[in-house]
Amino acid sequence: MGQEKKEIILEEIKYWKTSKLLPSEYCDFLIMLYTQGEGITEQKEHHRKQHGSIWFMLDLIFLLLLIPILFLGLFFYNPSVIVSLLIISGILLIIGGHYYYYKKLNTVYVHLPIILFFLIFLISSIHLLQLITGQDTLIKAIIFLHCFLWLLIGYWKQLYYLVASGIVGVVILVIYYFVI
Question: Which residue, 23, 134, 140, 151, shows the most beta carbons closer than 10 Å to its own?
Answer without folding.
Answer: 151
